[in-house]
Design goal:
By secondary structure, the protein is mostly helical. The chain has two domains: 69 residues; 253 residues, ABC transporter involved in vitamin B12 uptake, BtuC (Orthogonal Bundle). The longest helix is centred in the first third of the chain and has 34 residues.
Length: 371
């Protein structure tokens, strides 16, 4: 009986902390649309049609591929209570090496070897770009939020320099790398227009779900995340763990860049930044830092991003309206997290006054029935 009650409470907790923030954000966004003179039902219907119906679901899964890999990379480092906010620099640097070298390698070494070389290179570049913040955190306890943001800014600037002075396509006037031939890009899953990078992303998410929940590394990571001091007492190398987590996170973000360029974009132009990390951040926490749970959340946003871009244009709105919805999810996630924390401490989800107001009519009915 106690076990069943615990499961019920856990299920309610998941709904409150993970699902309700999204629902409330969509409701408030609908109110904003009404205030702007737009029809929210038309807008959400347009999102659904352009994100799922016909063959549009395939486009959504293609967009989902780099987002899911970045989400897993963030989950790994966040579970260690560390912050890697340098995802833009790590992604763009990985992308520029793939876009800069890949089109030149493909005619020489063949497609398969090009995929392998550029993917490994992007992983290494993304991982190395986290090394300085990781070392500063491990050695001196330097705030990694500041150092990763600084490194991200440097990485974005370095990407522009690499495009302009190293990887510039001589046949183009605008600063950009050479473009992959369509035949040299990642092959599609048979019968679809989804490249095999999507399979890579799903396999990586499932692999890290197993690693984090079923291996000794995952256990050590959870201990470290709960308390680095306690981790040291049980023989865990806290400094080494800090560096390893950052390297894994940066490497996965670099892999995301490789899959995106090899399978979808095909080149990198100057001042291009999809900023996947900013939009994925709320869904990482809604998934409760679980790679498996991140899959449906990232899929939801990929559908919303694919269909929402078209829906925003059709409604005469800026595509930045999608970021408004992401911001609303963050706001409601913060509120429900606060309420959920109260529940963990044995308190009600509702404030005492509101709870009593709800209970009073039922108490009155019970009293009358007893008489």
């Amino acid at each position: 009986m106690a076990t069943e009650s615990t499961r019920t409470r856990r299920g309610v907790d998941i709904v409150v902390r993970s699902i309700i923030p999204v629902v409330l954000a969509l409701i408030v966004a609908a109110i904003i649309l009404l205030a702007l003179g737009k029809n929210p039902l038309y807008f959400y219907g347009d999102v659904f049609a352009n994100g799922i119906l016909g063959g549009n679901w395939q486009n959504s899964l293609v967009v989902m591929t780099p987002m899911l890999l970045i989400a897993v990379g963030l989950i790994v480092v966040f579970r260690g209570q560390l912050w890697n906010l340098g995802y833009d620099g790590q992604y763009l640097l990985g992308a520029v090496f793939v876009g800069g070298l890949g089109p030149q390698l493909a005619p020489i070494v063949g497609d398969a070897l090009t995929y392998l070389i550029t993917a490994v290179l992007a992983i290494l570049v993304g991982a190395v770009w986290t090394l300085l913040p990781a070392w500063l955190k491990a050695r001196f306890g330097t705030n990694e939020v500041i150092t990763t943001l600084v490194m991200s800014s440097i990485g974005v600037g370095a990407t522009s320099l690499l495009i302009g002075y190293v990887f510039q396509d001589p046949s183009q006037r605008t600063p950009q790398t050479r473009t992959f031939n369509t035949s040299d890009m990642l092959p599609y899953i048979p019968g679809t227009t989804i490249h095999i990078g999507f399979i890579v992303a799903i396999v990586v998410a499932l692999a890290f779900q197993f690693i984090l929940s079923r291996t000794s590394f995952g256990l050590r990571l959870d201990i470290y995340g709960a308390s680095p001091k306690a981790a040291r007492h049980v023989g865990i190398n806290s400094r080494g763990m800090t560096i390893v987590l950052f390297l894994i996170s940066g490497g996965l973000i670099g892999l995301a860049a490789a899959m995106d360029i090899l399978g979808h974009v095909g080149y990198v132009r100057n001042n291009w930044n999809p900023a996947y990390g900013d939009t994925i951040m709320p869904f990482v926490f809604l998934a409760r830092l679980s790679p498996l749970a991140a899959i449906p959340f990232v899929a939801f946003y990929a559908i919303f991003a694919t269909g929402g871009t078209v829906a925003s244009i059709d409604s005469g709105l800026s595509t930045d309206f999608l970021m408004v919805i992401v911001a609303l999810i963050l706001v409601f996630m913060t509120l429900t997290e606060y309420i959920g924390t109260k529940r963990d401490l044995g308190q009600s989800y509702l404030p005492d006054e509101l709870r009593d107001a709800f209970r009073r009519p039922f108490d009155t009915l019970r009293t009358r029935s007893a008489k």
